[in-house]
Amino acid sequence: MKIAPKARLPKALKHVGIAADHGGFKLKAFLVEQLRAAGHTVTDFGDDQLKPADDYPDFIIPLARAVAAGTVDRGVGICASGIGAAIAANKVAGVRAALVAIDFSAQQGVEDDDVNMICLGGCLVGQALAWELVQTFLAAHYAGAERFRRRLAKVARLENSSNTTSNGALRPETVGDSYCAPRKPHLMTVQEAVAAWRNEGDPN
């Protein structure tokens, strides 16, 4: 099944990396077809066959490393729920992966948090929605506002070995940083939060 590319697709085509285990195999095949039909260059990191016993890290980690190295512009990782793919991808320094299920997150994640890899649940997201999310993700651009850069710099510091002890645990002074402290929840509805974000009044 082919779905016509959305008008919001970026004019500058991208090199997209994609990977999935058995839980996302069928959705991956569909997205590869759609991406190539839209003119993108696609590198498929596997699995190349439907194997019920395969493990998502075997495919997600090579994809994440390619994203971090800049070998591909953006990445799409898929497993049954998308959760395992996101966990694995975020273990690779330089990768900012997010589990995405709604259009808002696919756009806002890039604009605010410079997400360079999205993860999808192959058993949870249908083909039409998955294609919509991927298009939104590829069309979005990092806004680079000072507050976004400040927060990403703090996240990047966690990837620096100086923040960890010899056994890999975070140093106490890092764990105690004010930016890691619990915050009071915002008393806003989802609709109010979306409206605030779109008006550059993002409370976060």
Write the layout of secondary structure elements.
Blueprint lengths: L14 E6 L4 H13 L3 E4 L12 H13 L4 E6 L3 H7 L7 E3 L3 H11 L3 E5 L5 H13 L6 H12 L14 H4 L14 H9 L6
Parallel strand pairs: 1-2, 1-3, 3-5, 4-5
Description:
- The chain is an alpha/beta fold and about 200 residues long.
- The protein has 2 domains: about 120 residues, 3-Layer(aba) Sandwich (Ribose 5-phosphate Isomerase B, Chain: A); about 40 residues, no CATH class.
- It is about 40% helix and about 10% strand.
- The protein contains 8 helices and 5 strands.
- Strands 2-1-3-5-4 form a 5-stranded parallel β-sheet, sandwiched between helices.
- α4 packs parallel to α5.
Features:
5-stranded parallel beta sheet; alpha/beta; disordered N terminus; 2 domains; Ribose 5-phosphate Isomerase B, Chain: A
